[in-house]
Please model this.
Amino acid sequence: MKLLRETKNLKCSEFDIARLLKSKRAMTEYLNQVIADGDDAELAAALGHIARVKGMVEVAQSSGLSREALYKALKPNTKPRFDTVSKVIQALGMRITVHA
Model:
């Protein structure tokens, strides 16, 4: 019971995956895993996390999208169009490949 009371006073910060995405390799592995899982909404969120690390303004400019459109397309639980996903991936310095 004492342990339960002590844990109520603990403060935890919200988990932010972006803090773990420090390298191009980490970003690539994260994105590949999300794609392998096949969840469109999670793909949008993952691209949003990576874009935040790279800088939303820079990604927006490189992709040809407005910053507002980028935020809207990459928020969690959205299903962006393929052309948007493709533009963002290119702006992030990545490319889409298919393997059999």
